[in-house]
Write the structure tokens for this entry.
Amino acid sequence: MNHILKMSGTIASTALSLFMFAAPASAATAETVEIRGEVIDTWCYLSGVMGGPDSVTGSAHHTCALWCAAGGIPIGVLAQDGTIYMVLKLEGEDPLAQSDSIMKIQSDVITARGQHYMRDGVNYLVVEKVVTNEGITNVNHNDFGVVPGFAIPKKK
Amino acid sequence: MNKTTTGALTFALLLVFSTTAPAADFSKGSKAKKWGLTAEEKALFTGKVVDIVCELSGDCPDNCGNGLRQLGIVRDSDQKLISVLKNGQAAFNGAADDLLPYCNEQVDADGVLIGDEASLGAKYFMVQRIRKDGRPKWNKTKQWTKAWKKRNPDAKGKGPWFRRDPRVAKQIELEGYFGLGAEVDKKYIAENE
């Protein structure tokens, strides 16, 4: 009897843990992190609008990444494990502040220190400091060309 | 098995089934256009437009940051914070200018949810039309280019905005189309003309 009660209690507590893990959070807790990854254009990467994810990163997609950042599409940091961190602030600046800061880091591999928030499956990052900037290390335009093909204007 | 055991097992099973239910379908009533995107689903839902930083951290400036911050929608039906990546325009435009007029208000939002939720943990939203909750008139989400013109009165000339945007032009001037310098551009163009 005790055995059955113990087992059912374990099942209930496991299920409760699963429930708590899967339930949407109504608030988020910040954690200080240091994330290394490539600065990406989240729309092209997540939507597949211009092809597979490998073709919409790096040098191949750099001009389009500039367009999307200037266009107000959220930028992200793509970590090596594939996690995407949506950037909500960059060294104190709001992302749509029309400054050059957000433009200068497009497609670069950076290490960003800041506050990480997780809410409803999305990772958000308030970048307090760009600790290192390795520049564009993903030199992939020889594999994919320029993406999209019209990013470099044709000579008239 | 006594009542206590049965009750505990029933509770456990209810919890498990409540968390493994299929993802909700928000397509009913949607008039969104599909774009052929990854794991694309039409979605029409009601929710509150929020400043995401404010929602997460409690740092809440007036009027959702007056257009300087990324905005999202907290969906009524499940209280999920939906990250909005894109408005309804075709040329690399975000959604903040279209959401800002509804800061902290209830809206109906119609568009497409995109992205593979199983691997990403979430889906992301492209809002194509929006209205105050329950109002008859929908507004297409195409405010970005108008707002860009106001922000860049000197960016005149022909062609789409992204060829005339001063910040884009400055960066390409500095580092080229591939971000690797003018020589790399020159070599690629010569080989691919």
Q: What stands out?
A: The radius of gyration of chain B is 22 Å. Residues 6 and 150 of chain B are 66 Å apart (CA to CA). Residues 23-143 of chain B form a domain with the OB fold (Dihydrolipoamide Acetyltransferase, E2P) fold (CATH 2.40.50).
